[in-house]
Design a protein that fits this description.
Helices cover 30% and strands 18% of the residues. The protein has a 3-stranded antiparallel sheet. The N and C termini lie far apart (40 Å).
């Protein structure tokens, strides 16, 4: 059995072997962030380590958003939460749709949207 280390490793997943692990979302409202001209963002499935970090934060009573764990720039760099919050709402809604489709089983009870009741007039917010 291979020795387990705490150093991160690079794994190349085989796209033809199963479900897609990422989806590129073309933005309706491209933007510039620093030197970057951004017309698309990538939503990627979470790793065990990322899910464990979210679970630990939830157990500690922290507010946790999924976008910092799942959304990257096309080059793989994480998108800061402040950039997600500054997106136009339609682009955020599209990212949210893809994130929901990639939601890990362990996090579905916490993050899966619940249908609004007939008395609920509030709208969902992804500001976290």
């Amino acid at each position: 059995m291979p020795e387990m280390t705490s150093a991160p490793i690079k794994i190349e997943y085989l796209p033809q072997a199963g479900k897609p692990i990422e989806e590129i979302v073309t933005l309706d409202y491209p933007f510039t962030y620093g030197e970057r001209h951004v017309s698309a963002l990538t939503v990627r499935r979470m790793t065990v380590a990322q899910v464990d970090a979210v679970v630990a934060a939830l157990k500690a009573g922290e507010s946790v958003g999924l976008a910092p764990h799942m959304v990257t720039f096309p080059d793989g760099e994480p998108v800061p939460a402040a950039v997600i919050a500054a997106l136009m709402d339609d682009d955020d809604a599209r990212l949210f749709e893809v994130m929901q489709s990639f939601l890990p089983r362990r996090l579905r009870p916490v993050f899966a949207p619940t249908p609004p009741s007939a008395d609920d007039t509030s709208l969902p917010s992804q500001a976290d």
